[in-house]
Amino acid sequence: QVELVESGGGLVQAGGSLRLSCAASGRTLNVFNVITLGWFRQAPGKEREFVASINWNSASTSYADSVKDRFTISRDNAKNTVYLEMTSLKPEDTAVYFCAKSRLYGRVTYRAIEDFDYWGQGTQVTVSS
């Protein structure tokens, strides 16, 4: 069993920045370093959508067009943690943000929800105008 716990959400004004963290625990020591990790978000009344993902050795990243050039995903395998640095935040970035681990080994990045099997509980990000 893998547990993912997000932190770092909060209320920020438009144009501001936040850094989300997602720490993994449980039966992770054998798999964390070889999986892809991703961030998704879900706004009220909307479907959960892909935000960013990063492969096992950070050599490859993928971003949704809506966040490209504003958000940066990174990971620290020694700390079993993945990060999402968010800058130039907009009101439309308001959502609950979730981290997730891939079903398969993380040589490549993934973007589809069905490619991820364990999810965190989410952290709320609210951007005021």
Tell me the layout of helices and strands.
Layout: E1 2-7, E2 10-13, E3 18-26, E4 35-42, E5 49-54, E6 61-63, E7 71-76, E8 81-86, E9 95-105, E10 116-119, E11 123-128
Parallel strand pairs: 2-11
Antiparallel strand pairs: 1-3, 3-8, 4-5, 4-9, 5-6, 7-8, 9-10, 9-11
Descriptive account of the structure:
By secondary structure, the chain is mainly β. It is 0% helix and 53% strand. The protein contains no helices and 11 strands. It has strands spanning 2-7, 10-13, 18-26, 35-42, 49-54, 61-63, 71-76, 81-86, 95-105, 116-119, 123-128. Strands 2, 4, 5, 6, 9, 10 and 11 form a 7-stranded mixed β-sheet that branches. It has a 4-stranded antiparallel β-sheet with strand order 1-3-8-7, with no helix packed on it.
